[in-house]
């Protein structure tokens, strides 16, 4: 049961990353490091975190403008 829950959590996290990447692309924003945090995937009971990563100052400003 716990393994199934962990697999569902990982699948949900992957879907969230894909959705976020697609929506950012519509706004012309690319976060090159966007993905799942590998450290959170190797825990005994994985609960994946989304790693937004680094971006340029220009990308940060464009992201802030979209969020306004």
Structural features, described:
There is one protein chain. This protein has 68 residues and is mainly alpha-helical. It has helices spanning 2-26, 38-41, 57-67; strands at 35-36, 50-51. The chain has a two-stranded antiparallel sheet with strand order 1-2. The chain is elongated, with a radius of gyration of 14 Å.
Global morphology = elongated
Distance between the termini: 42 Å
Rg over CA atoms, rounded to whole Å, is 14 Å
Number of helices: 3
Order of helices and strands: HEHEH
Mean pLDDT: 89
Weakly predicted, low-confidence segments: none
Largest sheet strand order? 1-2
Could you give a short account of the major beta sheet? 2 strands, antiparallel
Q: Which structural class should the secondary elements be placed in?
A: mainly alpha
Percent range of helical residues: 55-70%
Strand percent estimate: 5-15%
Total number of beta strands: 2
Concise description?
By secondary structure, the protein is mainly α.
List keywords for this structure.
68 residues, mainly alpha, 3 helices, 2 strands
Topology, element by element:
Layout: H1 2-26, E1 35-36, H2 38-41, E2 50-51, H3 57-67
Antiparallel strand pairs: 1-2
